[in-house]
Amino acid sequence: MENPQKKLACLLAVLAVSAPLGAQTSDKLMEGINEYREALADGNPSELVAAEGEELWKLKRGPKNATLEKCDLGLGPGVIKGASAQMPRFFKDTGKVQDLETRLMTCMETLQGIDPKEVVNARWLKGEKEKMAALVAYIVTESNGHKVKVDLNNPAMKKMYDMGKLAFYYRTGPMDFSCATCHGDQGKRIRMQELPDLRTHEGAIAGWGSWPAYRVSNGQFWTMQHRLNDCYRQQRTAEPIYGSDVTIALSVYLAGKANGGKVVTPGIKR
Amino acid sequence: MATKPMRIRAAAKDGVTEVKALIAHEMETGQRKDANGAVIPAWFITELSVSHNGKVVLASEFGTAVSKNPYLAFKFKGGATGDKVAVSWKDNKGESRTDEVAIG
Amino acid sequence: MNNQRRSVLKTGSGAALLSMLAAAGLIKPGMALAEWNKAAFDAKSMADTLKALGISQPADSKDVQITGPDIAENGAVVPVGVTSAIPGTTMMAILIDKNPNALAASFTLPEGTEANVQTRVKMGQTSNVYALVKAGDKYYTATKEIKVTLGGCGG
User: Fold this and answer.
1) Burial class of residue B89 (count of CB atoms within 10 Å of its CB; 0-12, 13-18, 19+)
2) Where do the structural domains in chain A lie, given as residue ranges?
3) How far apart are CA C150 and CA A216, in angstroms?
4) What pLDDT is stored for residue A22 in this prediction?
5) CATH assignment at residue B45
6) Are A90 and A150 in contact (CB under 8 A)?
7) Contact at 8 Å (CB) between B4 and B69?
8) Do domains A46-141 and A147-269 have the same CATH topology?
């Protein structure tokens, strides 16, 4: 549990976000922090989670006692390489735009007979959600270095993109925050954390392109659904249902902004 | 609680083998409290050794200050493609695990 | 990548594992996996740790280096390394002055293993981090301050 004082301090920090440090001090600190981040890039503990995911992918599970090896992530049954870099995408069989996690739920349901509710209703990093995180770690590792490529010409995708944009600017909750409050300006930061400007291509690729990620602060691997849910929690507003349209719409918006940029997944975060 | 597999990489170059290992372990310090205020008991790897074809090339002792999911990188002389590098650990609860990799 | 192939050998209780490894020739009796030095790891201060290790007055040495970033974004994971250019280095340890227990890890280096080990440690706050090295029957140290920022708020 975070303590309330820390939360308050965080909010104040958000409100005071823009006051820049002296440029020189800031540069020197950022240099040190970049050195720190580089030192962590080799030996990203996500590898441990991905290894579990690889085993799960090939493990016979569920009422149908089947593996996920025939799961179609958009590039054909069983094709993982580069698949998550091209998601979310519109899937004909379900008639929906799906992100990686909702697509995996479809595969788990159709191939293995696992009820999506078991994933949706699980707590973060527990039960089926823990398994989901492992599968995600494995799959996104196979898109590391690929380029973001989502098809915004598809009418369903375009609709989701527009909805995602609306959601991004929608102010709500007791603080009247939107995503854009923190992620809609150049050069913002909370203490030493730079906040990517997700309206821009550069910002979107820095954000979207490096999630899902391992977070050193809590030693956990977080999926994109988990990341977005926590953004809403930090907004102090209602948390979205796992895999709901608004989460996918936001992902389409971010991926659309990041289109063409290089994916570095799984990321490693503070 | 079942232990989880580690990730070991071992690569030989110019007569020297570089080993990099990521070990899945909570490395709980015993100084944190859970949501109810109860102390979470310490749970950490105490000893870890790396061997090459059966000969120990690194023996280490850890305290609670080693990070969760420990990382270790070092080099030893010798080692050829196909040789075995094994990492073994033991924790304060008496759990242990060994994983092995062939030098690539 | 085939160098990432891994196969699980065995898991089991510590004692059974060790005897199994010894039987398989993986661990030579009397070598390595010595009894964990509880007194040294339980010691609070630097001074008490050195006392528990039976070391008095280690000498500062330019041939010993502690590597790490000047500033760590999160104290939970701080990459640090120890290198020694002193011939005959057989032991290296990492100590963190301001941690609740100073000793973080120690490494015994058989002949043929380079005196250069990288790992990751937890730091409660900004602190001096020490490398302690044994060569022959002498001990040497080097130090580096690593600043720890806790950074933002769960983002």
Assistant:
1) buried
2) 46-141, 147-269
3) 11
4) 52
5) 2.60.40.10
6) no
7) no
8) yes
Each residue of B62-88: pLDDT tens digit? Answer: 999 999 999 999 999 999 999 999 999
Sequence-distant (≥ 6) Cβ neighbours of residue C50 within 8 angstroms: C56, C58, C132
Does a structural domain hold residue B94?
yes
Does residue C23 carry a pLDDT above 70? Answer: no
Alpha helices in A58-99 (DSSP H): none
Per CATH, is A147-269 categorized as 1.10.760.10? yes
Q: Which residues in chain A are contacts of B4 at CB distance < 8 A?
A: 48, 52
CA of B24, closest CA in chain A: separation in Å?
7
Phi-psi region of C42 (alpha: psi -120 to 50; beta: other; left: phi over 0): alpha
Per-window interface: B 50-79 vs C, CB < 8 A: 51, 54-68, 70-78
Ranges of residues in chain A with a pLDDT under 70 are 1-26
Among residues C147, C150, C143, the alpha carbon closest in space to that of C67 is found at C143
Contact criterion met (CB < 8 Å) for A10 and C79: no
B7 contacts in chain A (CB < 8 Å): 47-48, 51
ipTM: 0.95
Write the pLDDT tens digit of every residue in C103-129. Answer: 999 999 999 999 999 999 999 999 999
Superfamily of domain C37-148: SoxY domain (2.60.40.2470)
- How close is the nearest chain A Cα to the Cα of B73, in Å? 9
Which chain C residue is nearest to residue A226, measuring alpha carbons? C155
Residues A141 and A204: their CA atoms lie apart, in Å, by 19
Contact C74 A32 (CB under 8 A): no
Locate C90 and state its tokens. Answer: 């057989």
B83 at interface of C, judged by CB pairs closer than 8 A: no
**Domain range summary for chain C, segments of one domain joined by +:** 1-33, 37-148
User: What is the domain extent for residue B57?
Assistant: 7-102
Judge residue A33's burial from the number of C-beta atoms within 10 Å of its C-beta, 0-12 exposed, 13-18 middle, 19 or more buried.
buried
Task: Specify the pLDDT at position C73.
Answer: 85
Residue in B with minimal Cα distance to A1: B35
Q: Do B4 and A48 touch (CB under 8 A)?
A: yes
pTM of the entire predicted model: 0.84
Q: Please give the residue of chain A at the shortest CA–CA distance from B20.
A: A43
Is the CB of residue A101 less than 8 Å from the CB of residue A222? no
B44 lies in some domain: yes
CATH superfamily of A46-141: Cytochrome c-like domain (1.10.760.10)
Q: Which DSSP category does A219 fall into?
A: T
